[in-house]
Amino acid sequence: MPATVLPTPAAPAAPVAGEPAFDLDGAWGLHPQVALRPEAFGALAYHFGTRRLSFLKSPALHALVDSLADHATARAACAAAGVPTAELPSYQRALATLVASDMIVAREPA
Amino acid sequence: MLEEVTDVPTPPDAATEPAPVPAHPDPAAEFPVLVQEDLLVEDVSIDGMCGVY
Question: Which pLDDT score, from 0 to 100, does residue B44 have?
Fold first, then answer.
């Protein structure tokens, strides 16, 4: 009988040294002064308060950011947006970047 | 009259030779985090651009 190769569990989304951590199990949402505009590459986020632009360079990241407020946790939003488990650390860092620029903010859990 | 040359240069010592450098190092292998981050989010400030358009 041939040996069965079991999939290895994905590595936990460890923050990179020197970068702010993002709580995937927290409740997050778009800042009320931020507008998202869909683009072919993903989306543009514009903050009317800080007058900053962020390029979200992935359709999945656009879907994730747009639906953050609809989910109890960012992790659930990632799953709903189709973010592969292996790419979760990259998306976690992207969300941390968006927190740092005030594009997304923590909200009270529903 | 011919002079005999006795000082023969020795071949370079292999231990002191620098290691060969690969012609095309993989940039993604050197900066994997930077490349991944750059793929997802890029911030721009439009402050100070009011007179441009």
Answer: 85
Count how many domains chain A has. Answer: 1
Report the CATH number at residue A42.
3.90.930
Pick the residue of B36, B39, B41 with the most A CBs within 10 A to test the interface with A by mutation: B41
pTM of the model: 0.65
Helix (H) / strand (E) element for A100: namely: helix A88-100
Report chain A residues whose CB lies below 8 A from the CB of B36: 90, 93
Chain A residues with a Cβ under 8 Å from any Cβ in chain B: 16, 50-58, 61, 90-91, 93-94, 97-98, 101
Give yes or no for a contact between A102 and A50, defined as CB atoms under 8 angstroms apart.
Answer: yes
Question: What is the ipTM, given to two decimal places?
Answer: 0.71
Is A77 buried (19+), middle (13-18) or exposed (0-12) by CB count in 10 A?
buried
Residue A8 resides in a domain: no
Whether A101 is in a domain gets the answer yes
pLDDT of residue A83: 93
